[in-house]
Structures are given as C-alpha cells and as structure tokens.
Amino acid sequence: MEEQNDFSAQEAALGKMIGNNFELEPTGDYISRARLAAALTDKVRYMMQYQLEELFSKLYRLDIFERKIKEVMAEGGDIAKKIADLIIDRQLEKNISKRENPPSTPEDEDLAW
Q1: CB 57 within 8 A of CB 47
Q2: Do the beta carbons of residue 59 and residue 38 sit within 8 Å?
C-alpha cells in the first residue's frame, strides 16, 4: 500500500517524464501506475522488436541497472512488462532520493554558482 501512495503522490510528474522519454501518446496525467505501466509496456514491446538498440540506450540513460535487465531477460515471461516495471520503479527510487536528500545550498552566497 505504501508503494501505491508513493506513486499517487508523484504520478503526474513521473508519468510525464516517462511519457516524454518514451514518446508515449499524451493522455494528460496518468491516473494510475497500472495505466502508465500498460502504455509503457506496449512501447517497450515495440522497441524490443524494432528499436532494440535505442531501448537499451534509453535504459542506460535512465540508470536502469544492467544486472536487473539481464535477470528479467533470463526469467522469460512478459519481458516488456517487467522492463516497464523496472523503469517505473527506478524513477520512483530517484524521485524519493531527491525528495529525501535535497541539494544543499552554500551558506556563503559567493560560493553559489
């Protein structure tokens, strides 16, 4: 339940960011993780068939761990859905980390860039 609450609090920004990175059809704000995951799964499935190199490039830029990708591919099943879940989970982790560890501002304004 806590995971669902974390997603609810950040869904608009997260959906927009992932939607932009993967060129998903604009639908306004994604209402739920399930809708975002479904749209992203379709895109990942397409990219796996026709744009595999570009998919791996995007996963690298989004900081999706290669080890996790290899595990998902070795497991089999619905690989596109599992990769979509990895993308969403990683972006949630990054957002939580940014929220819990805001950048520090130097006390001396001359040191600020």
Answers
A1: no
A2: no
> pLDDT (tens digit, 9 = 90+) per residue, 44-86?
999 999 999 999 999 999 999 999 999 999 999 999 999 999 9
Question: Six-digit token pair at 30?
Answer: 């994604």
Closest CA to 33 of 60, 59, 10, 64: 10
- How far is C-alpha 68 from the chain's CA centre? 14
Contact predicate 11/36, CB 8 Å: yes
Please give the model's pTM, rounded to 2 decimal places.
0.74
Q: What is the mean pLDDT of residues 20-42?
A: 76
Determine whether 99 is exposed, middle or buried from the number of CB atoms within 10 Å of its CB (0-12, 13-18, 19+). Answer: exposed
The structure tokens listed for 27 are: 């639908």
